[in-house]
Design brief:
four-stranded antiparallel beta sheet; alpha+beta
Length: 91
Amino acid sequence: MMRWIYLLIFICIISTPVGVVLTFIPWGDPDGFHGVGVPFAKVYWDDGLDYPNLAAYLLNIIAVAFVFFTAKISYDWVICVFNRKNRNTEE
């Protein structure tokens, strides 16, 4: 159980700066619809109007943590299935 707590702490430490950095990536066409921040933009611009998103920092951090956590669970699942397959073929 402690292994999962350490993993969660590690994911939080890594996903915080990565999520903040992703909030500053510009995208789109400056003459059309565009914004700053991936996957959740902190601001969108369209026809001279701006639409700020104050929750973008938190949403990007949560999104990165979700991706890391999903990757870890998927990795553990593949290893478990691979080990089960090897155990059945050795008998």
